[in-house]
Design brief:
By secondary structure, the protein is mainly alpha-helical. It has helices at about 5-10, 15-25, 65-70, 70-115, and strands spanning about 40-45, 60. The structure holds zinc ion (2 copies).
């Protein structure tokens, strides 16, 4: 039996319904990524223990985050988005530092003028 077939029949089973409920109780009924409480899915980090998975193998994800989890291309896009955000933050910090340096030099310059 292929893992996909096994997964399909398991996901429809009564055992999974119970396990799914336990996972929501254990991890909390919100998405572990974005904290959304809508359209929650229980995602398998690994299928190695399918049918007898410990709670650590399961993760609560909303429909959107789950979709991203199963689409590596989208995941890369998300990571790129995050990296761009970090870069923008760094450049804001850069210009702030620049401003401080300019302010200090003006202050020093004014101070020199006063001495004269
Ligand atoms: Zn999944
Ligand atoms: Zn989410």
């Amino acid at each position: 039996m292929s893992i996909n077939h096994k997964y399909d029949s398991y996901i429809l089973s009564k055992e999974w319904k119970i396990k799914r409920k336990q996972a929501l109780d254990f991890h909390g009924d919100f998405c572990s990524q974005c904290k959304s409480k809508k359209d929650l899915h229980v995602h398998h980090k690994t299928y190695a223990n399918l049918g007898n998975e410990p709670m650590e193998d399961l993760v609560i994800l909303c429909r959107d985050c789950h979709y991203v989890e199963h689409n590596p291309y989208l995941k890369v896009q998300e990571e790129l988005k995050l990296e761009t955000q970090v870069q923008t933050k760094q450049s804001t910090l850069g210009s702030l530092l620049m401003f401080v340096i300019i302010a200090i030099s003006i202050y020093l310059w004014v101070g020199l003028l006063r001495i004269r």
